[in-house]
DNA sequence: CATGAATGAGCTTTCATTCAT
DNA sequence: CATGAATGAAAGCTCATTCAT
């Protein structure tokens, strides 16, 4: 009856436009980080790569570091999502397969943008400690604790779950990262096998000492 | 005896003077890296901290990156030496003790300058890839291969030594670094125990099937 | 009576709305000038403080300087009004009392917004020379000329009224401003007494030589 | 006997070179302040006007404000010196002549760079309060107190010297400044006469009220 | 060899102003 | 009229590097 009080919906309402702009900036930031490293990724270059003026950057981010942090945060979210997507599909698989799959998922996720991974790991100073990368580690750690708690039957009884999770998460993460960045002469499947073994054996309850066996 | 034209024999011949100068610069560089991070460690600051003029830096190093690289190289050498010193004392110990000791040695060595470790790991871009840190990893890797070869009896037969060494070295190194930088709520001895377990179990041969034991 | 198409008579016709808007902007401008000085009083800040968009400022003022000028003009008008109000009440008082009161009125008027007075005097460049502050001086000057003309009997005969007025006005104004801004260790009443003396004595005729008195 | 330990004096030893450079910068800063006002006197412009690179400015001054402050300080010193030079020549003159001469000296000193005086007074925000301009006022104030103390015989007995000096100094200074900046239609000599009268009459001990004379 | 003043490109960031919506 | 995103020139300042002394 009365006219619509809200104007006709535009193709791009404010919030979407803003989100698109932020994304363009983050894309540009990521590009520049890859191409020039953190120091070389000047705000002017980022603005140019995003096709906007230098001043416009500052309508979306308070300073350069915030851009870099947001780029890394977005990357963390992508990592997180990619890993979660694949892992959640195999929740029903037996434990060792599940572990192997998780590691494979992480490795593949990291391998989507190896050049950016390198830029982040080797060129970018650790900015505000509240990055989502740490949250990612944290979250994986908690999942690991949960996993260990559920499977406590196959874990050696003297292990502290928190400690074990802390070690496992960082071990797996770092080896996967280094595998991609350093490209050692190790076959991909072999590598995944080995890292799976390292993870599983770490907490494996070993049978009573062999010397009992051969007295 | 002393020649007449030269007033007195210099305590420091050219090469030694030069070496001493380089060391002062490296000390200054290390200080500035710790105090201000890579970006904040300007050549002017380094020169001032070394008590020389900015121009003189370039008599000893071609550019800023070379200074940082040299600082890190020297640190790698110190690490290397500290670890080697302690490890070589226990060459005769039984394998598990030896491994544990090596890990403890590394952890202690990294803990000598935790602030510099943080500066290098979190603030300093990876410079020329020829750093001695990689050489350190390389060397430890070779030692590990040797160790595995010697102890091949207690290693699961399907393992490739090179692969295993690559994984072990990076795992141990990274976990030790993160332990120092992140200070997780894990007791130091416990941590060393756990990392030792992870290393040893990784290659531990799954005992011949239990049914062999109880025929 | 009321037309049908317009839902209800607006309380505020166009011109009044506009005037109200201008006042809000001037309030905001004054605030920002006080809080941040001229350079720190950015148009964005003023717009925000006025609760409008940056673009809307330019509906009412052609540029930033015009805002500052208008703020100062309004202040001049307020000063003017405050002084005039008090002075006009005492037009019947004897001359010295009248002068004293005028000075006191000015001092009080300046002391209503000492922080803004400081911002204007110490932080704000002199903008377009047509400011009302000069008009204020001009007007007071004319009043002074009139006053002198009326009281020419007690003024030394060699004085040019225009010159005397020019000097008196600037002297009184500046000393009052400095008194407020610098807060010297002078009692307020004493200060007013002194400035009154300075003004009155300036034009006081040197009495006919004493020897005329005692013949 | 022994060789001179200090090397042969160069045409321009370090300190002199430095002083010359500082002077060039101050000249350039003064020019730019005059030509473009404080806001328009950018560091780049100053550097260009001084014929040096922008970076070189910062070897002599920590920031833009320091340059402006130094320019004003130097000007204050020049003012101070010019006034002092002329005043000290007439120390033996009778009081009223001495006062008149001092005022004339100040007026002439201010009139040497009227454009810069305008730039300072109308365009430049008050920077660090410790400027030499205030010291100049302070110093003149103290001299005035001394003068009044010496001549206390011809000063009305109820005057506080500190208060009187505060008022006199600011009155004289401001009127002279305004005279130069506003160029009122007042003859220079007349102006000096008037200001002298204002100063002298302010403290003049007036004879017993005239009404005693004509009962 | 040592010096340190000088360089100058380039950095991050601001802000008065405009204009499509 | 109001909006506020976008602009882009320009600001203040830094710093790795050079070179005349």
TrEMBL record, chains A, B, C, D:
It comes from the Bacteria. It comes from Mycobacterium hippophais. This is TetR/AcrR family transcriptional regulator. InterPro entries: DNA-bd_HTH_TetR-type_CS, Homeodomain-like_sf, HTH-type_TetR-like_transc_reg, HTH_TetR, Tet_transcr_reg_TetR-rel_C_sf, TetR_C_15. Gene3D superfamilies: Tetracycline Repressor, domain 2. Pfam families: TetR_C_15, TetR_N. Residues 19-79 form the HTH tetR-type domain. Residues 42-61 bind DNA. Keywords: DNA-binding. The keyword DNA-binding applies. The keyword DNA-binding applies.
């Amino acid at each position: 009856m009365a006219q619509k009080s809200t104007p006709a919906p535009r193709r791009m309402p404010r919030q979407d436009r803003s989100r698109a702009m932020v994304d363009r900036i983050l894309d540009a930031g990521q590009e520049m980080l890859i191409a020039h490293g953190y120091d070389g990724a000047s705000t002017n270059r980022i603005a140019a790569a995003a096709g906007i003026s230098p001043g416009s950057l500052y309508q979306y981010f308070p300073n350069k570091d915030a851009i870099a942090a947001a780029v890394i945060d977005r990357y963390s979210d992508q990592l997180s999502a990619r890993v979660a997507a694949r892992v959640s599909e195999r929740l029903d698989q037996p434990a060792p397969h599940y572990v192997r799959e998780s590691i494979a998922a992480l490795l593949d996720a990291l391998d989507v943008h190896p050049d950016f991974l390198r830029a982040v790991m080797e060129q970018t100073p650790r900015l505000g400690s509240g990055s989502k990368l740490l949250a990612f580690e944290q979250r994986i750690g908690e999942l690991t604790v949960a996993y260990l708690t559920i499977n406590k039957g196959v874990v050696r009884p003297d292990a502290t779950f928190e400690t074990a999770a802390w070690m496992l998460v960082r071990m797996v993460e770092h080896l996967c990262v280094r595998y991609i960045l350093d490209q050692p002469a190790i076959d991909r499947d072999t590598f995944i096998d080995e890292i799976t073994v390292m993870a599983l054996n770490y907490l494996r309850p070993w049978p009573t000492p062999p010397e009992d066996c051969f007295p």
